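The pair is quoted verbatim below.
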Amino acid sequence: MKRKLILLDPGHGGIDPITEQYTTAPNKMAHHAGEQMHKNGWFYEGAWNRFFALEVAQSLSSYAIPVLFTIPREHWHEDIPLMQRVAYANWLHQMHDVLYISIHSNAHDGTVRGWQVHTSPGETCSDRWATMLYDLVNEEVGGLITMRSDTSDGDIDYENKFTVLTKTRCTAILAENLFFDNLEDARLLMNPHFVQRLVCAYVELCRQWVIA
């Protein structure tokens, strides 16, 4: 039997430690006038994705749950190509039973709020874990946020042909953690107490994956 492994995939790029510039700019960022956010009112999705992935990994370490990242530490701020992330996941899956969690935050026009999770089209084993994460997030913070779902196919996840979902051979889900271009959602994402409650939901999903 393969050993269970969590693979966290923080989407997009981060902040270059030398230049202090956001490497995904001018995309995946939103300005909220008068707010601190990551820098002078700017919310950087990729920076938040990395921060959250590290918080989840730190909590998982207390349970001795094995976890890796799709981004090498020496390239932590870089926007690693999608197929490179996929190739790493598929290589690991030859030796481990991998749960691939792609971490993102959403954007639209500033008026939309909410949390949602995606899987690849069709009925797959990923659907079960997407539904479980949805339920765990709803239990933890559902009273504070909008829970977004697509029940047209009988479950709650959105189905999309995202590369990290369709090209990976392991169980793979992609979560959109609120809308960073909405001020209320962005404030929650920058709130340490809210983040820790969200972390708890992800950690419990990973605990269930390991014992399943």
